[in-house]
Amino acid sequence: MHELSLNEAKRVGRKMKVHQGPRIADLPQLAEHSELQRDIRVVSSVLPFKINDYVIDELIDWSRVPDDPIFRLTFPHRDMLTERDFDSVASAIDAGAPAKDVNAAVDEVRWRLNPHPSGQLEKNVPKQNGEALNGLQHKYRETVLYFPAQGQTCHSYCGYCFRWAQFVGIKELKQQSKDIETLLSYLQGAPTVTDVLVTGGDPLIMKTAKLANILDSLVEAKLPNLQSIRLGTKALSFWPYRFLTDPDADDLLRLFERTVDAGMHVALMAHFSHPRELETAAVEEAIRRVRSTGVVIRTQAPLVRHVNDDGAVWAEMWDKQVRLGCVPYYMFVERDTGSKQYFELPLVQALRVYSEAIEKCSGLARTARGPSMSASPGKVVVDGESVVAGERVLNLRFLQARNPHWVGRPFYAAYDPRATWLDGLRPAFGEKRFFFEEDAVDDWRQLERDDDLSRFVG
């Protein structure tokens, strides 16, 4: 690894250089790993990969490749596809098949990878005047997600990304909005919304002027219920120079300041997957500059095999985040999409990692909630294991839910050492279904339409 000093980065005018798709296999750092190059070409034909020189030069320890955790996080691996899917694409590529035939094999695999899990399109996209508002999602009563068209890429891609379908060029899978007026119009008719999450991709890939159009418009709209703007980003991890040496870095910080000064709570929802992402001089200075604007940095990441499946790793990461002034927020369970079979862990193992991590931290780091599944009915946390009435069970609870009356309600699943997701669990105590599967009201909109909400309580 060669880490640039901040002065050196400023002197040379550090600019982001990216490598993506099958061309990743041609990086000179991989010349000594020829056995990986074919696998990289095949897998990166199916799943999106994009890596910049900051990640390559300053985060990856090439003496540990292929087992370096940041390499595992950002580079393709053959096991990210099933053997059947890998072979179908590899055979087309090896045979020199026409591009249309290779693309057909690739697209067939992509559709098998559950590109939009947890009802993202079917249940989450709101409607106005009977028309679906592409580029918006409104799953939880208080929060609307906004996908600006200019922010639907990232500085680098994580192999585990549950939004990988945004990046593969299939129109039917892409969520994006080119019009801020659509968002404002929807919010004006949605008085329950207190939070807007600008997401992607990564909204901080946008030039500051484009992002300013969104934030300034939200402030100027003077929506009486809007309290918070969240920005989902991995820029601090993968391109901290966004806040340091990019030509509009200072403009970005001034944008943050004026949005906070206007009375808005602004939260940078920063994705950190491994302590290494917090160790460079650039990221420490970037965090300091962001915090100086009044923006709060909250940190989150999924628990992923090969990268951070160790309680000590999470404890170190959370402690570093607290020291730098960030707020640990979520440990997520790897979603049921894309290369999940490569990254996922059984829920009981995820619970063990979380428990080992949290017990090593001070109270200031115990703000991190997890392990949490962002499943179709809501965010379900695995609270622990118990023996109840002689039966070994997993203790579960909703942190967030389509029906807000489910939030905080405990329920129990039969202990299963193999289950990796909510739909792999079965109810404990001989019950046929979980309570939320039987509830006739499974969306906050139904509650709004009912005058007597009391019957849904408890």
Characterization of the model:
With 458 residues, the chain is of the alpha/beta class. The chain has a domain at 6-112. Helix content is 32%, strand content 18%. The chain contains 16 helices and 15 strands. Strands 5-6-7-8-9-10-11-12-13-14-15 form an 11-stranded mixed sheet. A two-stranded antiparallel sheet has the order 1-2. Strands 3-4 form a two-stranded antiparallel ribbon. Strand 7 (195-198), helix 8 (208-220) and strand 8 (228-233) form a beta-alpha-beta unit. It is globular, with a radius of gyration of 22 Å. The N and C termini lie far apart (55 Å).
- Order of strands in the sheet with most strands: 5-6-7-8-9-10-11-12-13-14-15
Q: Please work out how many helical segments DSSP would assign.
A: 16
| Residue-averaged pLDDT | 91
Rg result? 22 Å
Shape verdict: globular
Distance between the termini: 55 Å
Beta-strand content bin: 15-25%
Unreliable segments (pLDDT under 50, ≥5 consecutive)? 451-458
Query: Using DSSP, what is the number of strands?
Result: 15
Helix content, binned percent: 25-40%
Secondary-structure content class: alpha/beta
Characterize the largest beta sheet: strand count, sense, and whether it forms a barrel.
11 strands, mixed
Outline:
The chain has 458 residues and is an alpha/beta fold.
What is the fold's blueprint, element by element?
Elements: H1 6-12, E1 18-20, H2 34-46, E2 50-52, H3 53-59, H4 69-74, H5 83-94, H6 99-112, E3 127-128, E4 131-132, E5 136-140, E6 143-146, H7 180-188, E7 195-198, H8 208-220, E8 228-233, H9 235-238, H10 249-261, E9 265-271, H11 281-291, E10 296-303, H12 311-323, E11 327-333, H13 340-343, H14 347-358, E12 369-374, E13 378-388, E14 391-401, E15 410-414, H15 435-438, H16 444-448
Parallel strand pairs: 6-7, 7-8, 8-9, 9-10, 10-11, 11-12
Antiparallel strand pairs: 1-2, 3-4, 5-6, 12-13, 13-14, 14-15
Helix pairs in contact: 2-5, 5-6, 8-10, 12-14
